[in-house]
Design a protein that fits this description.
Oligomer: single chain
Strand content: 15-25%
Helix content: 25-40%
Structural class: alpha/beta
Shape: globular
Strand order of the largest sheet: 3-2-1-4-5-6
Distance between the termini: 38 Å
Number of strands: 8
Number of helices: 10
Radius of gyration: 17 Å
Mean pLDDT: 90
């Protein structure tokens, strides 16, 4: 079984903070690799200011170079919009991988708002990475009240032969000041400077072309 972490996000754009926290989680959890799931569109985030899927995948591929990180827009191919549907489809398509869902404590704080969030927790283990300013809300969240009974230490999780679900691991991570919001604020035209060459999805191996629209969907 290949131990694979899944980190979803807009990656609008991807930056060194994404890479740093991914490599930290890999080491702490004993993962073989991590897939960055570049979302065509996050239902909980506004569409305004969202760069085309092509540009976001390309920025992620640049940050993932020479690391055991695969960048994918597999949700576009699967036709899924919500995390629960994406993770269910991925586990069915890749049964020989042992998946772990990675997310920040900011996501845990609102996890109870996600569609069928308990089903997500039953699909694969969840590793939560602390983010400054969100820990209090995460600990007090309805999702934490339910997930807390399934909590295990990072060492026990890392040494397990195969992970079961539901299972929760929390990781402490030194703050990283980099953020996609700050990058967009300083350089709102970053996506327009991406070369027009198609980028290859590193999981499905399909090409992603620059004519994807601002929501990340391929033209009809």
């Amino acid at each position: 079984m290949i131990r694979t972490g899944l980190l979803g996000g807009s990656f609008n754009p991807a930056h060194g903070g994404h890479r740093r926290v991914t490599l930290f989680a890999m080491d702490a959890l004993g993962l073989d690799e991590v897939w960055w799931l570049v979302s065509p569109g996050n239902p909980l985030k506004p569409k305004a200011g969202m760069a085309p899927l092509f540009a976001r995948v390309k920025s992620a591929a640049k940050q993932a170079r020479r690391a055991p990180i695969k960048v994918t827009a597999i949700e576009r191919e699967l036709g899924t919009r919500f995390t629960v549907d994406t993770l269910t489809a991925i586990t069915r398509r890749y049964p020989k991988r042992d998946f772990t869902w990675l997310m920040g404590s900011d996501n845990l704080a609102q996890f109870h708002r996600w569609r069928r969030w308990r089903e997500i927790a039953r699909t694969m283990p969840i590793a939560v990475i602390a983010r400054p300013g969100y820990d209090t809300d995460a600990v007090a969240s309805p999702a934490m009240a339910w997930l807390g009974r399934h909590r295990v230490s990072p060492a026990r999780f890392r040494d397990g032969a195969r992970r079961s679900a539901p299972q929760l691991v929390t990781l402490r991570f030194d703050p990283d000041s980099r953020s996609a919001t700050a990058i967009r604020r300083a350089d709102p035209e970053w996506a327009s400077r991406m070369s027009a060459n198609p980028v290859r999805d590193q999981v499905t191996y399909h090409l992603i072309h620059p004519e994807t629209d601002s929501r990340g969907a391929a033209p009809a």
